[in-house]
Each structure stands twice: as structure tokens, then as C-alpha cells.
Predict the 3D structure of the following.
Amino acid sequence: MALFYPSPNNKTNVLLILRTPYGGVHSNQIGLPGGKQEKEDPDLLSTALRETYEEVGVPPDQLTVLRSLSQLYIPPSNFVVWPYMGLYHKREPFVLQRSEVAALVEVPLIDILDDRKVIVKNLTTSYAKNVDVPAFLFNGHVVWGATAMILSEIKELLKQVL
């Protein structure tokens, strides 16, 4: 869930999360709230809403879903991700699921729209060594991979209406 919410100065922020270190391929990476569909989830939107509540404490009834975004295949984890954009009209409180979320990374929407925040980063991943990848640099964090692709789509969608 790409979650848009008000900042203290009444601007718009987008909520990213820093995943906790663990043995998986997305350990200690910046991402969006979300996760694997469970059998009790009737559809992928329900999954996104449930995971957003579990990971950052935003109740589904307080979130307005704006739209779905493009599906993405993530080779390292062999998952297809179907992201959504949502509005949370409150500033806080966010309640972190400490087993999965190490920290929040609050990004002003204006930074996502800023082309100067786009970089190329040379990375070694679980499946490639020394590969140049497009990324964003927000608050000292490199945001790459599926999260950067989702933010790029949001950036392009917003530029069409601004």
C-alpha cells in the first residue's frame, strides 16, 4: 500500500518502511507496507489493507483506497505484487509491527516528484553482482527494485494531473 497522509506542516507524505534484518532476500530494505496473501483474504486489496494494518497500524476503515497500480513480478522472492494507492487522513499514530518493520521512512510527496532524487546505484543483490539500478535517494535511504518501480509509476501518474 502506497500510503499518502498529512505531514505536520499540512503537506502530503508517503509512508515507506525499513524492513527488519532477517534471512530473506528483502532483509533490511526499504519497502511499502504489504505482504503475502493469506487464505482468509478474499482478494489482493484485502491483503493490502490487512498488511497495512498489521505492519503500521492503519485500520482499513480509516484508509481510502484510490486505485490499484501495475502488477510487478519480483524474481528474487518469486512473487507477483499488486500495489494500491491509499489515503490516510490522520497524521498518526503509526504502530509498527516490530518483527517486520524496523523503522518508518516518511517521504514528502514533493521529493517523489523531484527528478533530483533519482539516482543510479551499483548494487550486489541475491541474484546479480555489481549491477547499476535506478533508485531514489530519500532521507539517506536508497530505494530501489519493486519499491522504486511503484514510486516511479506514482510519480508518472501524478505528473499527468499536475
